[in-house]
Design a protein that fits this description.
Order of helices and strands: EEEHEHEHHEHEHEHEHHEHH
Bound molecules: NADP nicotinamide-adenine-dinucleotide phosphate
Structural class: alpha/beta
Number of strands: 10
Strand content: 15-25%
Length: about 280
């Protein structure tokens, strides 16, 4: 069981990835990204999740440098955007991300979305990047079971991570089971339902019983389900609050109650039907 913010899961290639990290989607390049990433690292976070799409890799890179924490203690994820898959410019996109981040390797490089008729080709480039040691792990995002089956059929290296929308209203039990069998670590995006779950009455009741906030209960539910989680906040007090989940445990009854909230309700786009 995870006992601290820096506890890790071991990916199938042996690389250790923190269970908990900071997401920076919609965090503005400049002061906002710089200050939130620095606040998170100061609070003990060691994992940061960005993407070329977020257009804040430069500030994330600056925050990493200014944090004073040695590079090898941090776990940095970024992702290749759909346009670069369509334009066959995945390798160039990776070089640009590295340059913006000011790094010579990332810890995890992800295929951001399963772009039809492109993702297998993209995966080959990620395999090359991995073999060169410029990404310590490679993975995918927004892949359903059929995308994974299709990719794995031809892949030399199995993805180490699948980052997907996952929260109590969209708990993805079948995908979680499949990934567990395949030794692919599941990672939750929008773990807080992008803020929409934070007044749920059932979660409130559980939170009150533990003297915790709803955000803390959801993030603890992730950890007890062995789901890597990366809540986003630009507010230092919330960055600290979200990580303060290692001093309590949800009971089996709490876990069952939260599991029963699943409505297969996505807030984000459907990986089988997106047009970006
Ligand atoms: N792979 C993908 O396709 C994909 C898609 C979406 C997201 N992601 C990744 O996953 C990360 C997390 O997902 P997300 O940012 O979409 O949503 P999220 O983490 O579920 O929710 C973030 C929202 O909740 C608010 N919030 C955070 N902590 C709170 C707290 N303790 N109390 C009240 N409100 C709180 C934030 O506001 P403030 O900032 O104002 O605190 C923000 O509006 C992203 O940042 C990104 O790194 C990946």
């Amino acid at each position: 069981m995870m006992r601290s913010l820096q506890d890790t899961t071991t990916l199938h290639n042996g690389v250790k990835m923190p269970w908990f990290g900071l997401g920076v989607y919609k965090v503005q390049e400049g002061e906002e990204a710089l200050q939130s990433v620095k606040a998170a690292i100061k609070a003990g976070y060691r994992s940061i999740d960005t993407a070329a799409l977020y257009q804040n890799e430069e500030s994330v890179g600056r925050a990493i440098k200014e944090s004073g924490v040695p590079r090898e203690e941090l776990f940095i994820t970024t992702k290749v955007w759909n346009t670069d898959q369509r334009n066959d410019s995945v390798l160039e996109a990776f070089e640009t991300s590295l340059q913006k981040l000011g790094l010579d390797y990332v810890d995890l490089y992800l295929v951001h979305w399963p772009v039809k008729e492109k993702y297998k080709q993209t995966w080959k480039i990620l395999e090359k990047i991995y073999k060169e040691g410029r990404a310590r792990a490679i993975g995918v995002s927004n892949f359903t079971i059929h995308h994974l089956e299709d990719l794995i059929a031809d892949a030399e290296i199995k993805p180490m991570v699948n980052q997907v929308e996952l929260h109590p209203l969209f708990a993805q039990p079948e995908l979680r089971d499949y990934c567990k069998k395949q030794e692919i670590q599941i990672e939750a995006w929008a773990p807080l339902g992008q803020g929409r779950l934070l007044d749920h009455p059932v979660l409130k009741e559980i939170a009150d019983a533990h003297n915790k906030t709803i955000a803390q209960v959801i993030l603890r539910w992730d950890l007890q389900n062995e789901i890597v989680t990366i809540p986003k906040s630009v507010k230092e007090s919330r960055i600290i609050e979200n990580a303060n989940i290692f001093d309590f445990e949800l009971t089996e009854r709490d876990m069952e109650k939260i599991n029963s909230l699943n409505e297969n309700k996505r807030f984000g786009p459907d990986p089988d039907n997106f047009d970006f």
